[in-house]
């Protein structure tokens, strides 16, 4: 039986560098995997920092 790997939900690079769309399941899955956070943590970070990936990363770094 072949080995099945889990592959992160990929987003195009031009989309991935801009903002996090919490209404798009693929975006939420991608960013929770990429940032190593739960959906709840991602939603909280976006509530505090906005949808900018740079600002969310900064918020998550300062809240740990």
UniProtKB/TrEMBL annotation:
It comes from the Bacteria. InterPro entries: DUF3606. Pfam families: DUF3606 (PF12244). This is DUF3606 domain-containing protein. It comes from Caulobacter zeae.
């Amino acid at each position: 039986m072949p080995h099945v790997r889990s592959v992160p939900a990929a987003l195009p690079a031009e989309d991935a560098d801009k903002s996090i769309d919490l209404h798009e399941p693929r975006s939420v899955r991608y960013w929770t995997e990429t940032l190593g956070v739960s959906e709840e943590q991602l939603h909280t970070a976006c509530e505090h920092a906005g949808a900018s990936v740079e600002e969310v990363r900064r918020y998550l770094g300062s809240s740990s």
